[in-house]
Amino acid sequence: MQLQATHARLGSCNRPVDRLTRQRLVVRSSAVSTSIKQPCSVNLENLGRAEGQTFPLNLYGGKKPSFVGKVVSIERLGGRDKERDVSHIVIDTGGVPFVEGQSFGVQPPGTKLNSRGVEVPQHVRLYSIASSRYGDSGDGKTCTLCVVRVIYPDPATGETVHGLCSNYLCDCKPGDELVMSGPAGTALLLNDNPWNKRIVCVSTGTGIAPFRSFWRRIFFDGIDGQAPQPFSDSAMFWLLSGFANTDSVLYGDELKAALEANPKHMRLDIALSLEQQNGQGGPEYVQDRIHEHAQEFLDLMASDDAIFYFCGLKRMYSSVLEMLETMGREHRGMDVPALIAQLKKSHRWHVETA
């Protein structure tokens, strides 16, 4: 089976793989799947929204006490020529439960003055969880955050501004303790039975974080050596993601492993804006990849089972909407805004942008 993928050097969470080519190539997956299942030492299948399950939400923080997380490990993602500094941070939460698509809050140290001039603690920043409910170790006691170090010039003064919490997290060391809250969020929750659904995920940069929790849940979690549920014949996980260049791609080795082990149920499209050109000769963004597959994408939107998730930059999502509306109107006579409204109503169109 042949799956189209953009692949040059796909960065893993601890090392880049060998450089291949800056052009697109066909990733050939063997007909026989290889196992990548991670044994889970506990059973957390009772978490979710289905009848009889427990849905964790806002257990800590706000008017409730926070909890203390401890950094287990921190690794830099990507290769030498990556565009931004991104860290893969594994945190011991003591077993605070969560489900895929949620976030944890982190409160950086220090204080600030509020609007009334009163000194108050720094406010909490939310970060999407990039691991399944079992954590990367499979014991349900950790979570993983994928954090980009925020550095930008102040538009008024030109001085360099360092994002408070992102730099705090990226500078952490194993053993450091974090004041945390959550789990929070319902906008991007993964369906309770993704092994029976067609799931389409679109991301840019660290917007890939919640989708890592998805593919870890779908392809890596193993209960007694098996997936929590068997795959239906039509089940599919399709990830379309955009990065600046090959060295900026996040979790590339892991994605390759999942693709090769699940050739019937996974698709992968990566756009590299600094290395590839779209059909008009400009930089290729993730929306250009959707445009290349527009007919299939629109078919999935019009189906009765596909579920869509978007996470990343607002301008990415706006560009995707504009492209889909044009393609739908000109080539299909389709009212895309009305269709998206229906998909949202049926909980099949999920968006989280910044």
Keyword list:
354 residues, Rossmann fold, Elongation Factor Tu (Ef-tu), domain 3, globular, five-stranded parallel sheet, 2 domains, alpha/beta, 7 helices, six-stranded antiparallel sheet
Q: Please identify, by name, the CATH architecture of the largest domain.
A: 3-Layer(aba) Sandwich
Number of helices: 7
Mean pLDDT: 88
**Structural class label:** alpha/beta
Number of strands: 19
CATH superfamily (homologous) name of the largest domain: Nucleotide-binding domain of ferredoxin-NADP reductase (FNR) module
The largest sheet is: 6 strands, antiparallel
Straight-line N-to-C gap: 36 Å
Brief summary of the model shown:
It is an enzyme of class 1 (oxidoreductase). It holds the Pfam family NAD_binding_1. This protein has 354 residues and is α/β, with parallel strands linked by helices.
Could you walk me through the main structural features you see in this protein, from its secondary elements to its overall organization?
The protein folds into two domains: 2-41 and 188-353, Rossmann fold, CATH 3.40.50; 67-184, Elongation Factor Tu (Ef-tu), domain 3 (Beta Barrel), CATH 2.40.30. The chain contains seven helices and 19 strands. It has helices at 164-170, 209-220, 252-261, 286-292, 294-302, 314-332, 336-345; strands at 2-5, 25-28, 38-39, 67-76, 86-92, 103-107, 111-113, 119-121, 125-128, 142-148, 151-153, 160-162, 177-184, 198-204, 221-222, 236-243, 266-272, 307-312, 349-353. The strands form six sheets. A six-stranded antiparallel β-sheet has the order 9-6-13-4-5-10, with helices on one face. The protein has a five-stranded parallel β-sheet with strand order 17-16-14-18-19, sandwiched between helices. Strands 1-2 form a two-stranded antiparallel ribbon. Helix 3 (252-261) links the parallel strand 16 and strand 17. Residues 1-34 have low confidence and may be disordered. Its cofactor is FAD. NADP(+) binds at residues 128, 206, 312-313, 352. One of its GO terms (molecular function) is ferredoxin-NADP+ reductase activity. Its EC number is 1.18.1.2.
